[in-house]
Amino acid sequence: MDSAKIASISATNDGSIEDYIGVDKVGKKGLPIICIPTTSGTGSEVTRFAVIKYERTKKAISSELIIPDVAIVDPTLTVSLPAKITAYTGLDALSHAVEAMISTWATPFTDTLALGAIRTIFRYLKRAYDNGGDLEARYHMSMAATLAGLSFNDPKVLLAHSIGQTIGPIYNLPHGLSVAFALPYVLEFYLISSADKIALISEAAGIYDNKRTDRENAQEMIRWLLKFYRDLDIPLSLRVQR
Q1: Phi–psi pair at 60, nearest 5 degrees
Q2: Helix axis angle, 108-130 relative to 214-231, nearest 10°?
C-alpha cells in the first residue's frame, strides 16, 4: 500500500521520491488510490504515511495528500496469514494505538480511537493467532488495525517505531516484531510523564485496580504486556534473532 501511495504522487509531482521524505513536502495530490489491506497491522489504508525501506534504514513521507481515497477492509483476506505474521502485524497495530495515546499531540478524539483499537487487540489477537480461520477474531482485528491507523495520523508514532525502524533493517526483522521489542521499554521510559495514559491502557486490558496509583497500574500494564507477548510466542530478547 505504501508503494501505491509513492507511485501515486510520483505520477503528479516532479523530482525524485527522496524530495518528499519528511513532513508535508508533497506539492500535489497523487492519482486516486484504493487500498485493500491483506494484514491487520499497518493501517496504511487510512494514514498519511508511506515508509520507504533502504538497505540499512527506513524513511517516511508524511502528507495528507497521500491518504488513500478509498479503503476496502475485508477480514477474509487475512484468514490465510500464518500465525507469526498475525502476531507481528497485530503488535504493530497495538504499538500505533499505544504510541498515539501517549503522544503529546493526542486529543480526546484520537484517544477514543486508540483505546478502541487497544481493547480489541487485547481481546482478539490471541484468538486470531491460535486459529486463523476464526472469522470473528479476524473481523475485529481488521477493525482494530484501521482504528489504530486513524488514531495516529495526527499524534504520530513515537520512540517504539523510531527504535523499531532502526533495528529492523540491521537485524532483518519483520517490522511488527522490531516495534514489539521496543514497546515495553518505551512505556517504562514514559512512566515519568504518561503514567495516567498507560493506566488507561491497563483498563483496556482489564487489569486496572482503583486501589493502585496511576504509576502502579502503569507498571502492572508493562508486566502484563510481556505476558501477552509470551502468549503469542514473541521472543523478549534480540539475542534470539541474531
Answers
A1: -130, 145
A2: 30
Q: 155-199: per-residue pLDDT in tens? A: 787 889 989 888 888 888 999 999 999 999 999 999 999 999 999
Fold of 75-241: Dehydroquinate synthase-like, alpha domain (1.20.1090)
Q: Which CATH number fits domain 2-71: 3.40.800.20, 3.30.1050.10, 2.40.290.10, 3.40.50.1970?
A: 3.40.50.1970
Quick one: which of 169, 176, 184 has its CA closest to 145? 176
Q: pTM of the predicted model, to two decimals?
A: 0.94
Q: What is the location of CATH 3.40.50.1970 in the chain? A: 2-71
Q: Per-residue DSSP letters for the chain?
A: -HHHHHHHHHTTS-S-GGGG-EES---S--S--EE--SSSS--GGG-SEEEEE-SS-EEEEE-GGGS-SEE---GGGGTT--HHHHHHHHHHHHHHHHHHHHSTT--HHHHHHHHHHHHHHHHHHHHHHH-TT-HHHHHHHHHHHHHHHHHTTTT---HHHHHHHHHHHHHT--HHHHHHHHHHHHHHHTHHHHHHHHHHHHHHTT---TTS-HHHHHHHHHHHHHHHHHHTT--S-GGGG-
Q: How far apart are CA 163 and CA 17, in angstroms?
A: 23
Per-residue model confidence (pLDDT) at position 166: 87
